């Protein structure tokens, strides 16, 4: 679930307009979705920060994808993934919710 910080809302005179992907405008995002899933599936053992950078690079040439949308994609992927701390114990134990996610390694999607 996205927090209000990750949501993208445009405020206009007639109210708040939430960011939405539409089939007519964003049909090509299906390809991005497949690529993002592949990054996470093939990124087992990689740090979360590395996974996020890979997702950001997928959208490097996409004009209709602000950084907040990319961050929201990463958050949704993280929520469905399993992470573990460094097995050698070099990194302190962190839970998925305590802000230490970037130091954890992806275990599965």
What is the secondary structure topology, with strand pairs?
Blueprint: E1 9-12, E2 15-18, H1 23-26, H2 29-42, H3 48-58, H4 67-80, E3 82-84, E4 105-108
Question: Which tags fit this structure?
Answer:
14% strand; 4 helices; alpha+beta; 4 strands; 109 residues; two-stranded antiparallel ribbon
Question: Could you describe the 3D structure shown?
Answer:
The chain has 109 residues and is an alpha+beta fold. It has one domain. Helix content is 39%, strand content 14%. Helix 2 runs antiparallel to helix 3 and helix 3 crosses helix 4. About 9% of the residues have low confidence.
Brief sketch in words of this structure:
The chain has helices spanning about 25, 30-40, 50-60, 65-80; strands at about 10, 15-20, 80-85, 105-109. The chain has about 110 residues and is α+β, with helices and mostly antiparallel strands.
């Amino acid at each position: 679930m996205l927090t209000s910080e990750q949501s993208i809302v445009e405020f206009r005179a007639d109210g708040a307009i939430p960011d939405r992907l539409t089939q007519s405008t964003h049909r090509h995002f299906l390809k991005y979705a497949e690529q993002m899933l592949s990054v996470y599936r093939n990124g087992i053992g990689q740090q979360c920060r590395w996974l996020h950078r890979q997702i950001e690079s997928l959208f490097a040439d996409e004009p209709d994808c602000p950084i907040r949308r990319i961050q929201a994609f990463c958050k949704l992927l993280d929520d469905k993934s399993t992470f573990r701390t460094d097995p050698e114990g070099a990194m302190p134990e962190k839970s998925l919710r305590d802000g230490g996610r970037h130091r954890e390694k992806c275990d599965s999607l």
